[in-house]
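Hi,

I'm pasting everything inline rather than attaching a file, because the server keeps stripping attachments. The sequence lines come first, and each chain or strand is labelled.
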Amino acid sequence: MTRLVMSDIVKSVRELPALPVIVIELMSTMDQEDAGGNELAEKLSRDQALTAKTLRLANSSFYGMQSKVTSIQQAIAILGFNGVRTLVTTAAVIGSFSGSKSGTFDFLAFWRHSVATAVCAKLLAKSLHLNQDYAFMIGLLHDIGRLVLVTSSPEHYAEVLNHRAQRDCCLLDAELTVLGVPHTIVGGALAAHWKFPLLMQKAIESHHDKAHGAMPSLAGLVHIADAIAHGLDLSGIDDDIVPPVSAETWNSLDLSQDIADGIFCETEAQFEEACQILLSMQG
Amino acid sequence: MSTRQLDIFLDDAQAGMVLASALLDNHGGTLLPKGAELTQSVLQSLHRRGVERLSVVDSGISPEELAEERERAEQRLAVLFRGAAGQAGSESLRLCLLHYRAGEAS
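And the predicted assembly:
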């Protein structure tokens, strides 16, 4: 077995492609409600590729805008500062891993599952009156630690995948057995390196925990959205497996069958289009 | 998707159809509850609200087809949930998904 240690992980996180400075700035002000919209718009306008991707995302029917958005200023006026922040960060993060390759790891299935979780987390947040922008981002990035592991130690991760296939266990258990470091911890470290809000770091780090508190929380919500995305079979993998669901966390969301049906149905309805748009952000 | 419900565009909806799941607005509020019957005035109001899709009960299915569908859904969910079979939280979600996939015939 090939055990990784935390210092290896920190090193590989540091070697990852950096996010554009503007995105780091945006994320570090995520807790401030209206941190200088004009300044943001001006800075962002200097990164033409990112601006173009952000506007393309804003204008997709998945985002449900009534009229066409042609400038960042206009997007802020309509979607709010938080909404635009999510768009920019989503476009930048998906782009930052676009060149990743591995013989054994299925990147498409990875992103399809991430998008399904993001869509479902946003819908859950809507019905529970939690922050939808945060929920979407955390859902999209909950497994990002896996990409760090695959891109930084492809041979080691091939062993993980092999172990999972042989034992037919959860990928998380295979990571713990083979590497000794789960993707949750690595994802939390990357989120910290990228200066994401503490709330998001914690949620990414704890999304496989056995408990997330008795009240609905973003961490608990993503734990459930992750399981629902697997349960709805949206990754498109024959031998997919739903990770264990915490009873306490499931109960804390207090979903009636009617509400759950609505969320399942809406997740399926939005999924393909969200995939198409978000995955076109790569490259 | 369960064969007991059909996911359709609002333009294809007709008066007399019955909602298979609650219709929610952008804020998570219920526009129409599950089981509501669509009438001409309801359809017009949904058009005004910009609703594009909805799922309605599909009544043209035989009990045998329904049983087969439920069987298929149950088998697939058993495979997907094999890692945590019988654990309380996983079991709650599995049953919730089964209900969604195969309707209420439990």
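Residues 72-96 of chain A form the longest helix (25 residues).

If the labels don't parse on your end, tell me and I'll reformat.
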